């Protein structure tokens, strides 16, 4: 079932959803299931599955030469989505990236998803890999998420890359895209970021999931500005609880997200990460309750493969 259909069926009731990180290579599927099992009591209508592209590393060959090697640290998203849908009978929503994919790769990826009756995707540009200062697209791929959205939308109309293909099957993907309440790190302003978000909607996106934020007013202001720009699709807030003292500096640096002063002061008082984790849970519970009172369609939690704090939050909210 499509994400937009889940919203319609809920008739205004806020639903619980979450996002998982594929386990590191070498761990079997049970490591993932153990993380998901404890959250199923909150009846998520769908589970997002992130995609992690390959990384490039240089290995010293010992003769003064370096060898470029491509490594993948995590298993593929398609298989994980199929396993989730088969075990839990909930919709799995795979992320699909511009980075690391040619257009042909993207089409094949989508054909596999359609074959498995996976109805939803989240289309993202993706970040630069460690060896890049800035994002570099595949020479045969897409540079921007709106281009990726258009390819998916075209496939929904039966338009494949091979224009001579006869009797082509139309896919029927519901397409999600990302939104940034505090703007994307590379955007010069929030207004320009909204301009590009609008391009993704015009290309065929059906809903928006936001980057994490810790100040609900930033989300409310973002939604208001998006509506002023004529963006009418559902906007889903993405939430991540703080869990370590290190994140106090890492999250603003890596994600360009501001932390409220009140939250910072509470975290600074903590003597260990266990105490930080509790502060993060309590803050996220209050965020969730306020957002729920604003009738958001879902509360979408970034679990990062750890479910214990997400469960505590859900227990306090749902």
What do these coordinates show?
This protein is of the alpha/beta class and 318 residues long. The chain has a single domain, classed as TIM Barrel (Alpha-Beta Barrel), CATH 3.20.20.220. The chain is 41% helix and 18% strand. It contains eleven helices and ten strands. It has an eight-stranded parallel barrel, surrounded by five helices. A two-stranded antiparallel ribbon has the order 3-4. Strand 3 and strand 4 form a beta hairpin.
What secondary-structure arrangement, pairings included, does this model have?
Elements: H1 3-10, E1 15-20, H2 29-37, E2 46-49, E3 55-60, E4 66-71, H3 77-88, E5 91-97, H4 103-115, E6 120-124, H5 145-156, E7 174-179, H6 190-203, E8 207-212, H7 216-228, E9 235-239, H8 247-255, H9 261-268, H10 273-293, E10 298-302, H11 308-317
Parallel strand pairs: 1-2, 1-10, 2-5, 5-6, 6-7, 7-8, 8-9, 9-10
Antiparallel strand pairs: 3-4
Helix pairs in contact: 4-5, 5-6, 10-11
Provide a brief overview of the structure.
The protein has 318 residues and is of the alpha/beta class. It contains eleven helices and ten strands.
Q: Percent of residues in helical segments?
A: 40-55%
Main CATH class: Alpha Beta
Model regions low in confidence, pLDDT < 50 over at least 5 residues: none
Quote the beta fraction.
15-25%
What is the β-strand count? 10
Instruction: Return the string of H and E elements.
Output: HEHEEEHEHEHEHEHEHHHEH
Largest sheet: 8 strands, parallel, barrel
Biggest sheet strand order reads 1-2-5-6-7-8-9-10
Shape: globular
């Amino acid at each position: 079932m499509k994400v937009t259909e889940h919203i319609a069926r809920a008739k205004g009731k806020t639903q619980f959803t979450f996002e998982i990180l594929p386990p590191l290579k070498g761990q079997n599927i049970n490591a993932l299931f153990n993380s998901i099992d404890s959250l199923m009591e909150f009846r998520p209508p769908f589970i997002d599955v992130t995609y992690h592209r390959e990384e490039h590393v240089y290995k010293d060959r010992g003769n003064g030469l370096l060898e470029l090697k491509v490594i993948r640290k995590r298993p593929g998203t398609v298989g994980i989505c199929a396993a989730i849908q088969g075990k839990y009978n909930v919709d799995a929503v795979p992320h699909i990236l511009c980075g690391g994919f040619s257009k042909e790769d993207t089409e094949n990826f989508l054909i596999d998803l359609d074959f498995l009756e996976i109805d939803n995707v989240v289309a993202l540009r993706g970040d630069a890999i460690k060896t890049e200062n800035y994002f570099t697209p595949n020479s045969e791929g897409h540079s921007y998420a709106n281009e990726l959205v258009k390819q998916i939308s075209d496939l929904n109309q039966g338009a494949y890359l091979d224009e001579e293909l006869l009797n082509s099957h139309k896919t029927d993907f519901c397409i999600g895209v990302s939104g940034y309440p505090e703007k994307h790190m590379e955007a010069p302003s929030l207004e320009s970021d909204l301009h590009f978000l609008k391009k993704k909607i015009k290309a065929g996106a059906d809903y928006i999931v936001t980057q994490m934020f810790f100040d609900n007013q930033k989300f409310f202001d973002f939604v208001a500005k998006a509506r002023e720009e004529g963006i009418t699709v559902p906007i889903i807030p993405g939430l991540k609880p703080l869990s370590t003292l290190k994140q106090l500096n890492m999250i603003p640096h890596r994600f360009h997200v501001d932390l409220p002063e009140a939250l910072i002061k509470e975290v600074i008082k903590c003597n260990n990460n266990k105490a930080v984790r509790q502060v993060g849970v309590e803050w996220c519970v209050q965020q969730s309750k306020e957002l729920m009172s604003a009738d958001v369609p879902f509360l979408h939690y970034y679990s990062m493969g750890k479910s214990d704090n997400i469960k505590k939050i859900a227990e306090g909210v749902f």
